[in-house]
Amino acid sequence: MKTRMITLAAALLTSLGVQAELRQFELTIEEVDLEVAPGFSSKVWAFNGQVPGPLMRVQEGDEVEVTVFNNTTLNHTIHWHGIYQTNTWQMDGVPEVTQPAIEPGESFTYRFVADKTGSLWYHCHVNTAEHIDLRGMWGPLIVDPKEPIDLEKEVTRDAVLFFSSWDSSVAQTYGENAVPGRELDYFSINGKSHPYNQPLRVREGDVLRLRLYAPTSPVAFHLHGHDVLVTHKDGSALPAPYWADVVPLQPGERYDLIVRMNNPGIWMVHDHIEENTTAGGKEMGGSMLVVEYEEIAKPDFYMWKDIEFEPDFYMVESMAKPHGLHNIEAFMGVEPALERRPRRTSHSH
Ligand code: CU
Ligand code: CU
Ligand code: CU
């Protein structure tokens, strides 16, 4: 209920045309281990220690200033995927094209206007076959439009899903990506492989918005029991939203879906690319989750009957908060125990 009230309040403010603001954020890049599945961890370069990176959410027209501190052993940049960077091309985050890469121990401040709306994202642009594809260097940048379409105004739950893949053969070695010929063998949603991820809980009558992201490899999204209305592609509202029950995504693509939760039950969601629903070669893992209607009693045989529920795993709680940068505890990696790395203690530039 609280979530719904906050969402309604935000929608109202949006419709009133709130003034553009200066949004100042700080991001560090950390070397941590991400436990993707029991028995499988990958070394990642994690924004604020998290995979996916923290939710950055601003309003159309806001000035965004992000200072990035590189606390790792290799170079990085950040590309703001979708932002037009009109007259600010130097902020586009491409090493040796728009800036020198940010070296270990250094920082860089990006300044740009949120001039494109919708489900955008940010990611490293250095050696992307490793940094994006295998080291978790991606997160959501959501720019709320001043004039949302009517369907968006109905949303009661807003969820963010990043589908990604992993390669256990190089997971423990920074600087390796095994391209060409690599074999991806773990798949995850928001950094965790099923069944180590979480259910998405809804109530009958909810209008669920799903923001799908495919940063690393193709996905064929499928939700049982419902058709979905595809409303936005790569942030832009479609002139004619269309119905689907499978939504394919190529790497880099985003689709926003609206689902009317009108069929109480416990429903599977999965990637229909069969190898993406395996984990270390075993079936029934990877890119899957379950949508649970809260009204439905969980049967005894249900695999997640007694799960310790993490309500922000699909960023639903963070999406109900005001604009800003939202760190999400559930996405934190752990610091490697043995290798102590040199680390900046101050945030001086
Ligand atoms: Cu990087
Ligand atoms: Cu990109
Ligand atoms: Cu199915």
Report on this structure.
- It contains four helices and 22 strands.
- It folds into two domains: about 1-145, Immunoglobulin-like; about 150-320, Sandwich (Immunoglobulin-like).
- It has a six-stranded mixed sheet. It has a five-stranded mixed sheet with strand order 5-7-8-3-22, with no helix packed on it. Strands 11-21-18-13-16 form a five-stranded mixed sheet, with no helix packed on it.
- Mean pLDDT is about 90; it is low at about 345-349.
- It is about 5% helix and about 40% strand.
- The N and C termini lie far apart (about 45 Å).
- The structure holds copper (II) ion (3 copies).
How would you sum up this structure in a few lines?
The chain is built from 4 helices and 22 strands.
The hetero compounds bound to this protein are: copper (II) ion
- Strand residue content: 35-45%
Average residue-wise pLDDT: 92
Structural class: mainly beta
Strand elements, count = 22
Order of helices and strands: HEEEEEEEHEHEEEEEEEEEEEEEHE
**Straight-line N-to-C gap:** 44 Å
What is the CATH superfamily classification of the largest domain? Answer: Cupredoxins -  blue copper proteins
The Rg value, from CA coordinates, equals 20 Å
Q: What is the global morphology?
A: globular
Give the C-level CATH assignment of the largest domain: Mainly Beta
